[in-house]
Amino acid sequence: MKTKHFQTELALLAGDDLSEAEATEVKRHLSVCPDCRAHLQKLQKSQEALGDFAANTATLPAIDLRSRVQKSLPTPAQIHRRHNLLHTWAPAATVIVACTLLFMVMGPDSNSTAPVDSGLTSNQITNHSGPRVIGTPVTYDPVHLDQLADPDPNQEVFMKQRSSEDSSANQIHFFEVP
Amino acid sequence: MRTVTDFPSKIDQTKPLEAGTNDARLVEEVRRGNSDAYGELVERYQHRMLRVIQRFISDQDLAQDLAQEAFLRAYEKLDQFDPSRRFGPWLFRIAVNLTMDYLRKLKRRGRWMLFSESPADQTPDPATSDPRLHHDLSQEVHTILSEIPEKYRTVLVLRDLENFSTSEIAAILERKEATIRWRLAEARNQFQAIWNKRQAEHEAAESIEDV
């Protein structure tokens, strides 16, 4: 368990990556923990292999990137044009993506449980088996119905609740969609 | 048992980034339109950058193309460089990101190999006393590195093969130094575990052959 606890410190110690104070503390532990000493030895061996590998593969063939790069350097005008293109299209693309995402999130959802007018949720309305009841009930007078069927262009067609003197037997109920 | 102080110090194969140099002055000249100053920066960093890229992609032509591309991108983004910070880590961040992007693209295409050419195809270094030993070591290290996850492998390569300091690696990879130290320790422990396992397997195989 102790070795597990010290694994990070031991790995850093093996590569000389601990501060003096940290190293002293770990070395103090090493003097009393044979498991950690054994683990450090293994780490040192693998570090040696890495060091040998690094030394053997450090040499590179002669190269001249300077002339290659200098030949390919874009002119200030080319850089300016690229920046302009980026600054024009990047915000436009961002807006398009944002709008698409917004539509996907806020668009019609038959499973939505958000409440709508009349106290029902859109989910309840969709799954309602009986006649659809949407909106506020409005009572029409039969006289007005005639007007609706054959409207007089000079007279304003309006919907209003039946006046109190009409009998309830003659009432026809519709629902005004808000 | 060998003590900690007996352990050989890290090979001094590279100088710290920007030691004794004045990159800021050159960057300022480039910004004023002096492309020769940029040529000087390229010359200053080309070998180290190429070697870093070749740690991940051993195809020399491809590594040179990526290094060239990294220098060109750095030039185009020079107006975004904060002169109060160090130029070296900023430049190597571009190069490492470019290399990692390339490797990820290859991986997505399903024809990824960590070190794009097989170690078996590499020419042995004639300076090595026993080229076969060098070849075996290279192959072994290549194989083990390819088994370590990318985020640990990158830190291990930059620290133990390229000798960047942990603060430089933190700047290159845009992570906190504490994160880099933790990843480095994890990478070394993983490397050690695989290394020892494979060594034990080789020894067991050799003893069977001897019998």
Task: Provide the descriptors you would attach to this structure in a database record.
heterodimer; A: 178 residues; mainly alpha; two-stranded antiparallel ribbon; 7 helices; 2 strands; 6% strand; B: 211 residues; 8 helices; disordered N terminus
Walk me through this protein's architecture.
- The complex is a heterodimer of chains A (about 180) and B (about 210).
- Chain A has about 180 residues and is mostly helical.
- Helix content of chain A is about 55%, strand content about 5%.
- Chain A has seven helices and two strands; from the N terminus they run ααααααβαβ.
- Chain B has eight helices and no strands.
- Chain B is elongated.
- The longest helix of chain B is centred in the last third of the chain and has 34 residues, at about 175-210.
- Residues about 1-15 and about 115-130 of chain B have low confidence and may be disordered.
- Chains A and B meet through α1, α2, α3, α4 and α5 of A and α2, α3, α5, α6 and α8 of B.
| Helix content range of chain A | 55-70%
Give the DSSP E fraction of chain B (strand runs of 2 or more residues).
Answer: under 5%
Largest interface: A-B, 49 and 54 residues
Mean pLDDT of chain A: 74
Radius of gyration of chain A: 41 Å
So what's the overall shape of chain A? Answer: elongated
Let me know the number of strands of chain B. 0
Q: H/E order of the elements of chain B? A: HHHHHHHH
Please give the order of strands in the largest beta sheet of chain A.
Answer: 1-2
Query: How do the helices and strands follow one another from N- to C-terminus of chain A?
Result: HHHHHHEHE
In terms of DSSP E residues, the strand content of chain A is: 5-15%
> Which structural class do the helices and strands of chain A define?
mainly alpha
What ranges of chain A have pLDDT less than 50 throughout 5 or more consecutive residues?
156-167
* CA radius of gyration of chain B: 19 Å
